[in-house]
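Chain X:
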Amino acid sequence: MIVFKSSYQVFILKFLLVLFPVFTVQAQNMSANKSLFQNKLSFSDPFMFSFPKTSNISISMLDTNRFVIAFRSDGYGGKGVAVIGDVAGGNISFGSPEFFDEGIVGDIKVQGLSPAKFIIIWQDEKQNGIGKTIVGEVNYNYISFAESYVFNDKPTEELSITSFNDYDCVIGFSDGGNFGNGTVKRVKVIGNLVMMLNEEVFSDFPPNFNTFIRLSDTTFAVPYYSNSENNVKLRKGRISFDSVFLAEEQIMISNSVDQLNVAELFDNKFYFSYFDQGYEITSKGVSFSEGFSFGKIDTVLSGNTGNVELTSLDANHYLHIVNYENDSAYADIVTVNGTIQTSTQHQSFEKEISSIVLTALSHERFIIAYSDDANNNSGKLILGTVSYMPGYFFDISAFLEGPFYGTAMNSNSDILPELQPYCFESPNYCGKEYLSVIPDNIVDWLLIDVRKSVGGKSSNSIFRQAVFISNDGKVLSSDAMRIPFFEFIQYENIFLVLHHRNHLSIMSSSALIENNGIFNYDFTDSWLKTFGGLNGCAKLNSESYGMSAGDANGDGEVNNLDKNDFWFSQLGGSGYLQSDFNFDGEVDTDDLLFWIMNSGKSSQVPEQ
């Protein structure tokens, strides 16, 4: 977490919301809202790992049943201590605490490398705050330390470390010997030795920074607050065998913020939040080859918040911890669908605590460590568990007739809107799906509608959400990377409907079949897959079928209204227009050919 020096802490809370947050539920499937809030958290009683006066806590998992905690023990004169914790069922046992620095330590960060090894970086306050590192090896729950190394021999602040495997790491810090420049250093751990490799400057001014975003096995992102420009910037990094490289910077948040918190979501995705005048603002980030793209910002909570911590649980869930300035602490699980986040209700787990840190042990278990302010700041931790409601992936393929050419669809992502385009009379979907930069392989936005079967007839929407369709026909979530993911109570049969702004809607001719948490359906390989058969779809070639073009006004029919009210009025225009059926960015006679071909045709999707 980054804490910035600003007037944040003296803001008067608005609307009398002192302790309890306001959540914005972004999904538009109101019938499923109750089910979206059924992810649950449970917490163990506290376990003590240090007494008394514990501060500067850092924690990292070693495997799904073991973790390491590093901290400053002010009860022992500020020495640096590490201890191993083992989880067995609902119990936690600790090994013997070991000193990694018997002087006085400042900021500390620990990173697990393997079940038997970890690395610590810290400030040595007895030596003017220089940056040091050490490797710890674990035998059962006992720790042995090798020789420590200096990675920066000048005052060192804003520490961060991330690992890519058992031996490749990068360290981030503000270099007091180089005007406080933000610096990334490449290190390699061989056995219990630390090899110091090259370093790169990511900020020419002292940044507010203490975290990396791990994007893949070789790439990462560096988010930092630029004090000189009053904005948050982001730089992509890449490691090779013995070096680290940084790409050009990109503005992530264009205004001054109070805190920045990030959580990795795996596969080039991450979630971030920040505070603006007492309100926590959230968004999703995606890394493409072209750079970074972001979802729409949204307000999650308001309150006199002292600290926020995040950790990912899997690619679709992360844990959100809030420690308010009255020292009461709450937690919630956030579900991520594309660029949309939906939160559970806040659950209280402790009071009068500070210095909260957390780590996930698995998809279902996590550790929260903290300083117990009511008990002489002793170090304690809580084992948390998650129970999830059912969640499913939708692996769907479809084609749009207008842009289809040969075996795939032409794409023209430059004309696509950043915000989904379905907030009009029909289908009247006003979700906040948004992507600031849309990749080149995306053809257009679709609206996916999952319905439950009632009396043999498909009706009653379970949920709806805006998605993308790529040029190979794959339906992708609003992050343009993964197939859609939804949480809902599964009914006996569910049917799938796809809507498009100027093509006729289609529905699956049979109920979808779930296999290992995935619903697969391919509309493209047979007209029998579409409800209504050839009356409900378009034949594109001898092997492919798709959604029929020509419905410019989206009323479910291709008729004179589409030609007279839309095509004629938009003829000669360019951009993202309803009458541009082939998606080339212009309305011309080529588009009229699709209307002529499908005139008189209507969608076969049953009305609800």
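Chain Y:
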Amino acid sequence: MNRTLIAVALGLALNTGANAAPTISLEKIGQHQTGVFAQGAAEIVTYDANTKRVFKVNAQAATVDVLDLSNPASPNKVATIDAAALGGSANSVAVNKGVVAVAIEAVNKQDPGVVAFYDASTLTLLNSVTVGALPDMVTFTPNGRFVLVANEGEPNDDYTVDPEGSVSVIDIRAGVKNATVATADFKAFNGTEAALRAKGVRVFGPGATVAQDLEPEYITVSNDSRYAWVSLQEANAFALIDVKFAKVLEIQPLGFKDHSVAGNELDASDKDGAINIANWPVKGMYMPDTIASYNYRGDTFIVAANEGDSRDYNGFSEEARVKDLTLDPSVFPNAAVLQQDANIGRLKTTLANGDTDGDGDVDEIYSYGARSFSIRNSRGELVFDSGSDIEKITAKLLPSNFNSTHDENGTFDNRSDDKGPEPEGVALGSIRNRVFAFIGLERVGGIMIYDVTDPYNVSYVDYVNNRDFSVSAELPDGSANPAAGDLGPEGLAFIPANQSPNNTPLLVVGNEVSGTTTVYQINVNNKK
């Protein structure tokens, strides 16, 4: 299939009510191209309604690029913010009431970073404040009084320097020029490693305290701005934070997904030459990247893209393939069959979990991510998971390009041994009293759409992929091939109709591999 917008309401009997008629559809109406291939030239995106501008992180140029979206069919770059002037490069950007916040890592990523504030119109630097190491995500609270920053605190490649992860809470109630910073850290949990592990929290870095080991990835804030949930991706957990007091209240383990259960199938091999979405004796570690939240009947519900991530450094790596493990023969009497490449032998797993009885062999096999998106309540309890739907849907619609990777075409089944389609980005949008989740698939590409209005009754709506698998992803000169479309969706931003430049809801997507920023118009259809 050449580059067309795949927009099909499947008739599959999936566990999310796939037979329901779609209520919305995406129509690509505009795109900004950088021509930069696989260097992160379009990552996180955010929108300012007052100036009708999109601010997007351009990691390749160490800038935040400013796109004029007054005509959404023709977004064009009008300015840049030079993040390198204050540190290494920008990692995240957010905007609220004419103020742009940019999270900037230090030149040495293990050193403290900064958050810089700019005027959205003039791009004048208003102030900058010091935050923790590797500020990876920044967001305003809904009431605009605080800015929260997830300081990932990753170790260096030798794993000899491991800064503490934390969340900086920037108080801007007196204005950004008078901003003050408080730190929600994890020091109070130091010494509780065994108890956390017993609950399912992965604390495993060599010689690390809890505060060093936890790496905040993404933040979402409750509608009333009182509480924040932070994804601790490698730890497979959330942190619950009291915003006003900048305090971590609890660490919420996310549990594991049983891929041996019907509805939780996965394709685990890149060497079988086929689509084989099946049950296996594997537990998936949810490990969400992007999270977003909304209110339903008085509770906050967190929508999570269960991407998965491992620690793989020169100084320490947890990665292994199932075929390289010593499996407990009493648990896995068919170990020799399972460890064949065509079964789960190629599946990437971890050495940090699995030996439950301490006898040196592996009793449980874990895989990275859950190849799904989930919804959890404010206590971190799972209320919905999309199961195997994403792989089933992409297999149905893209049978020749199933589980392809994002920087090369002709890669059928390439990612099945790893994290499959790799759900990474999430944006929520409210349209005509319905709440929709837009989930970006980092590897095969495209956007999944679900109606999540009722978190206990979720329905699949649509899948859109603006990618042409029939052409080369990269041109001979090393630039991105514009004919290939969008590769590697990273950041998504929903624009409601009352803030949209064309009075129609929009979805803006930054694609890190193709370097494109794509504007979709969200067309509302009547239910049948």
